[in-house]
Amino acid sequence: VVCASQDFDYFYFVQQWPGSYCDTKRSCCYPKSGKPAEDFSIHGLWPQYNDGSYPSNCDYHASFDPSAISDLKSRMEREWPTLACPSGDGDKFWSHEWEKHGTCSASYLDQHGYFEAALNLKERANLLKALQNAGIEPDGRFYSLESIKEAIREGTGYTPGIECNVDKSGESQIFQVFMCADTSASKFIDCPSLLRRRCSSKIKFPQFLRGSEDLMS
Ligand code: 5GP
Ligand code: 5GP
Ligand code: 5GP
């Protein structure tokens, strides 16, 4: 019997703001390759169903193979850094993303194609530039959720979903940005559905502090 990999309807392409991952109670650890740039970075490329649910862990035999993406490694370290503790080289995060989400897209993309597609989407959606063009800077100030969505729509052509988390003082801040892509992850599409994820109407855009400041804060 051949096990067909599960099909899906579209991808969520999810980017994270490192400042908002790191300024929470849980804090963060920089990857072994060094402190990431002050920029959005990739969290994942997640297959979705139109009804809002999603498949996961679709193939226990297709384990992560770092050698299959060795040519992408420097781009991965730059655009897809791991911020969880303890510090890692990225393989654990990438392996988790591939095994939980990537294996569910195998009818369209192999492992190399999956990671390369995510990197290429990141290149085509410069979120920080879109926000800065609208005067929205990572300066620790509060901006309206609507102005953030509008700036990203203006800069990329697509309305994103925004997910918030809370900093150490309990203030709502921009944590992740959701965009949608077609099943081959070759182009963005309008999102079939976006949940409002824990944001208040005005949210903080924190800085991404340098290591020494992090330790003291
Ligand atoms: P959290 O509970 O932090 O929102 O999400 C934990 C994990 O659940 C995420 O890292 C991701 O793997 C998965 N997840 C959360 N929301 C979604 C979603 O809308 N679509 C998919 N495919 N995965 C999700
Ligand atoms: P998810 O299941 O939500 O797609 O993936 C989140 C998992 O990846 C968690 O187990 C988390 O500990 C791990 N992880 C490692 N580095 C990062 C990171 O930089 N950001 C996020 N969100 N999760 C990370
Ligand atoms: P996971 O089970 O996926 O490791 O982590 C669950 C949740 O905790 C995810 O939302 C992930 O982003 C968060 N998380 C895991 N490890 C860390 C960490 O070291 N620092 C922070 N700030 N969040 C973490």
From TrEMBL:
It comes from the Eukaryota. One of its GO terms (molecular function) is ribonuclease T2 activity. InterPro entries: Ribonuclease_T2_eukaryotic, RNase_T2-like, RNase_T2-like_sf, RNase_T2_His_AS_1, RNase_T2_His_AS_2. Gene3D superfamilies: Ribonuclease T2-like (3.90.730.10). One of its GO terms (biological process) is RNA catabolic process. Keywords: Disulfide bond, Endonuclease, Hydrolase, Lyase, Nuclease. It holds the Pfam family Ribonuclease_T2. PROSITE patterns: RNASE_T2_1, RNASE_T2_2. This is Uncharacterized protein. The lineage of its organism: Eukaryota, Viridiplantae, Streptophyta, Embryophyta, Tracheophyta.
